[in-house]
Design a protein that fits this description.
Order of helices and strands: HEHEEEEEEHH
Oligomer: single chain
Radius of gyration: 18 Å
Helix content: 25-40%
Number of strands: 7
Largest sheet: 7 strands, antiparallel
């Protein structure tokens, strides 16, 4: 019987690249948050709480993922405005500094099955993300999934959920996301910190933009 070969050590270069890239993502997202004028969001949570899991049409984030984060914010703007900003993905770069480009890969309003491709910077590379909408309920929730790839960095599967609820004339926005993949899980705490900073920046940008956008005239939909 042939003796099994010794396991090949994991290259340190990839781990170092991962740490550098996600640390840079934290810096980019934190800078975007610092420039926002919105009030602070509710403290984010790296792990799920004891309450029921959030879902969109029966679908939620990956329950087995080691990298996960969730957070909430209250926006003083019409639900139609908040929903329009979030689902008009091609216009993300106009109000989210960390989104460099974004394009739809199919026509029409965002719906279940829609696909879009967007990019965001990381040190020494640009992450290229292709997302597919897995569930959508108009003005209520949306969930998309997809991989992210860049030079020396890969997230095999990201799952991102958003829910929108009108409460006393405001909009309560809840978001949570999970990342999966051998490389990203090799340093889960650093990856989680990067994910958290990114989501907090996104929430603050959404709040600031929605609250400063003119309200559509009565009788005209903002969608």
């Amino acid at each position: 019987m042939t003796r099994p070969a010794a396991p090949t050590p994991r290259p340190r270069r990839k781990t170092a690249a991962l740490t550098l890239a996600v640390a840079g993502a934290v810096l980019l997202a934190s800078t975007a948050t610092a420039t926002a004028t919105a009030a602070p969001a509710a403290p984010g949570r790296a792990a799920a709480g004891s309450g029921p899991a959030a879902q969109c049409r029966g679908l939620g984030v990956d329950p087995a993922a080691r990298v996960r984060y969730r957070s909430d914010i209250v926006i003083d703007a019409p639900l139609s405005t908040v929903w329009k900003l979030q689902t008009d993905v091609e216009r993300w770069p106009s109000w989210q500094p960390p989104v460099l480009t974004s394009e739809r890969l199919d026509p029409g309003r965002l719906r279940t099955g829609s696909r879009f491709r967007w990019t965001t910077p990381a040190p020494g590379t640009t992450l290229d993300i292709t997302s597919t909408v897995r569930a959508l309920e108009p003005r209520s929730c949306v969930l998309w999934t997809g991989p992210a790839t860049g030079d020396g960095l890969r997230i095999d599967e990201g799952v991102h959920l958003w829910t929108f609820t009108e409460v006393d004339g405001h909009v309560h926005v809840h978001t949570e996301e999970t990342w999966a993949g051998a490389q990203i899980e090799s340093d889960a705490p650093t990856a989680t910190a990067a994910l958290g900073a990114s989501l907090e920046a996104w929430l603050h940008a959404l709040k600031t933009t929605a609250e400063t956008r003119p309200t559509a005239p009565s009788g005209h939909s903002a969608i």
